[in-house]
Design a protein that fits this description.
alpha+beta, 123 residues, 2 helices, 7 strands, 16% helix, OB fold (Dihydrolipoamide Acetyltransferase, E2P)
């Protein structure tokens, strides 16, 4: 009986240590498209290589998303609301932070989104 309890204790330690980890990342990107009904935005994201290769990331927003605008310089932001998403056009420059909430990169949620001034660079 004692061996069974020890095995169960060891197994519970292994299971609890295999918990899913959240992954967060932030990046500069271009808006590709906004789907207001699905509350999702598709971004075109460069990598760090020169010249950059581009990939696309689709992320969903919710009530926890923080919206900001930076009309003149990136470090001077003003708060915005979720209706900012409807104003985003194709190729709008944004700085966005996303989190997979433990889905191992299967799905992304927007933590914060800041519009960038037109003179800002993305790659």
């Amino acid at each position: 009986m004692r061996r069974i309890l020890c095995c169960l204790a060891a197994l519970s330690l292994l299971v609890s240590s295999a918990a899913f980890a959240e992954t967060s990342k932030s990046f500069r990107a271009y808006v590709v498209g906004v789907d207001a009904s699905a509350k999702s935005i598709r971004f075109r994201v460069p990598d760090d290589a020169t010249p950059p290769t581009w990939s696309e990331v689709t992320a969903t927003w919710d009530d926890a998303t923080v919206w900001e605008q930076a009309p003149e310089v990136i470090y001077k932001t003003t708060p915005a609301k979720a209706d900012l998403a409807a104003k985003l056009k194709r190729d709008t420059k944004v700085y966005v932070g996303v989190n997979d909430r433990g889905s191992s990169g299967g799905r992304w949620w927007i933590e914060h989104l800041t519009t960038m001034p037109p003179a800002s660079t993305v790659p």
